[in-house]
Amino acid sequence: SQQGEEDPQALSIQEGENATMNCSYKTSINNLQWYRQNSGRGLVHLILIRSNEREKHSGRLRVTLDTSKKSSSLLITASRAADTASYFCATVPLGSGTYKYIFGTGTRLKVLA
Amino acid sequence: GAVVSQHPSRVICKSGTSVKIECRSLDFQATTMFWYRQFPKQSLMLMATSNEGSKATYEQGVEKDKFLINHASLTLSTLTVTSAHPEDSSFYICSASEASGANEQFFGPGTRLTVL
């Protein structure tokens, strides 16, 4: 399967705690993106990290990228109940002529108030 | 940011009927549009890529005669599920890119299809 793997598949934490999700992929990439999806809704773009970047921040989000290990992590600090959602990584394989996204399997995050 | 809409947001149909889902880029011209399918608690799986004015490219295992894609203009792509069956019930999401080869896709809100 081309699909990336994410772990954990599900994560339940208390409000205020940090949440870390990991994504592993199989091929060399142009970039990697993280998306959030609330139940039954579309995707919300969170952050893009390019293959030559190692870390990126956006508000309470911190993304790292290790191209040697073909993995990325998403850290949400000081989580809130509103962060409850599924989180997906999506990679654009290097040399992908039409820039097709390959989505990871996703992590379902539940933040308890 | 760029906005993509889908219509309808939900549709329920009888087995054997055809259903058309529209995907529109509202404030940009989309040379390329992508159609994804998502089953409950699963990830998005790319079904096909369509470029304006040309035939869609389908992913392996996706029946092109069952999932008809038309990308007739730079702002509209349609997915028609023909002779729908209960196993076609799913969440269908489209995305659009501003120019051929562009890196960023803008996603629509999705269409929930239920086939009875």
Descriptive notes:
Chain A has 113 residues and is mainly β. Helix content of chain A is 0%, strand content 57%. Chain A has no helices and 11 strands. In chain A, strands 2, 4, 5, 9, 10 and 11 form a 6-stranded mixed beta sheet that branches. In chain A, strands 1-3-8-7-6 form a 5-stranded antiparallel beta sheet, with no helix packed on it. The model of chain A has no long low-confidence stretch (mean pLDDT 91). Chain B is an all-beta fold and 116 residues long. Chain B has no helices and 11 strands. In chain B, the strands form 2 sheets. In chain B, strands 2, 4, 5, 6, 9, 10 and 11 form a 7-stranded mixed beta sheet that branches. In chain B, strands 1-3-8-7 form a 4-stranded antiparallel beta sheet, with no helix packed on it. Chain B is globular, with a radius of gyration of 13 Å. The mean pLDDT of chain B is 91. The chains are: A mainly beta (113), B mainly beta (116). Chains A and B meet through strand 4, strand 5 and strand 10 of A and strand 4, strand 5 and strand 9 of B.
Q: What proportion strand of chain B?
A: over 45%
pLDDT < 50 stretches of chain B: none
Head-to-tail CA distance between termini of chain B = 37 Å
Strand-residue proportion of chain A: over 45%
Categorize the overall geometry of chain A: globular
The biggest sheet of chain A, with number of strands, parallel, antiparallel or mixed sense and barrel status, is: 6 strands, mixed
* Global mean pLDDT of chain A: 91
Order of helices and strands of chain A: EEEEEEEEEEE
Q: Tags for this entry?
A:
A: mainly beta; 6-stranded mixed β-sheet; 5-stranded antiparallel β-sheet; globular; B: mainly beta; 7-stranded mixed β-sheet; 11 strands
